[in-house]
Design brief:
With about 260 residues, the chain is α/β, with parallel strands linked by helices. About 30% of the residues lie in helices and about 20% in strands. It has a six-stranded mixed sheet, sandwiched between helices. A two-stranded parallel ribbon has the order 3-7.
């Protein structure tokens, strides 16, 4: 297999691909997600998603051969609680992933119960709408320690040579209390910092991301960094690779600026 790139993507809001008005709002995001398969050297054996919507005490690896759905959102139309994304799981690769994490000395376990959360199934419904690519998740570790998530990414880097695409799924701005015009200044400043940091040399950008709280408006944009932490893993798995910004959108919901990136 040829080495796969890794990604940090925005997964949008809730079940947005199934909501016409929201889908129109996220048209640039949809275009960027649709383009991702063409950026791969070949069809992947599986997609490994690290979603901002699943965290556990250590690192948990989804091992169900047919993961169920997790509707981890509220206030949406009834039909959005009937969505299915029937991609098969990847139990053999889950076992391999668990072994890599354990070999790196990281706390890890297999989880046969967890299903696809919306940070996974919403973007995947756009990236691979036929749900014909095996898919599994690894959780974030509670506390969001950047060093632990960089270590997780480094441990999983060999999967890139085994046909697995590693995707960190979050959002470069995630403050649900300040969407709209109030998000304009902080999200634009943080997004500019993030893009500049990711263009630094490998050692410098790792250091910058490790100390992300020093970025402008860092805690205004991420009061809790669950939607930022996936980038630590995606970058850790491609620490020496060049960055390409694959998505950039402004004025989302009247004020939010967000970006997505490919490494490699």
């Amino acid at each position: 297999m040829t080495r796969m790139p890794t990604f940090f993507i925005s997964h949008g809001g809730g079940p947005w691909p199934w909501l016409p008005d929201w889908r129109a709002q996220f048209a640039p995001l949809e275009a960027s997600l649709k383009a991702m398969p063409d950026q791969l050297p070949e069809r992947p054996k599986a997609v490994l998603m690290i979603s901002g919507h699943w965290e556990t005490e250590g690192f948990a690896v989804m091992s169900n051969p047919q993961p169920p759905m997790v509707y981890d959102y509220t206030g949406f139309p009834p039909e959005t609680y009937q969505i299915t994304y029937p991609a098969p799981g990847a139990p053999d690769l889950a076992a391999r992933t668990h072994a890599l994490l354990a070999a790196a000395g990281l706390p890890t376990r297999l989880d046969a119960e967890m299903g696809y959360d919306h940070g996974t199934f919403a973007p995947m419904a756009v990236i691979y709408p036929e749900a014909d690519v095996p898919l599994y998740q690894v959780s974030l570790q509670q506390g969001y320690d950047p060093a632990a998530h960089f270590a997780m990414g480094r441990a999983l880097a060999p999967l890139r040579d085994e046909g697995v695409v590693i995707i960190g799924s979050g959002l470069s701005y995630h403050n649900l209390r300040a969407f709209g015009p109030g998000a304009r200044v902080p999200s634009e400043a943080f997004d500019a910092w993030l893009n500049e940091a990711l263009m630094l040399s490998p050692e410098a950008r790792t250091k910058a991301l490790m100390h992300w709280e020093q970025a402008p408006y860092a805690r205004d944009c991420h009061a809790q960094e669950d939607h930022l932490a996936p980038i630590f893993a995606a970058l850790g798995a491609a620490e020496q690779d060049d960055m390409t910004r694959i998505y950039h959108q402004t004025e989302i919901f009247g004020g939010v600026t967000a970006s997505g990136f490919r490494f490699g």
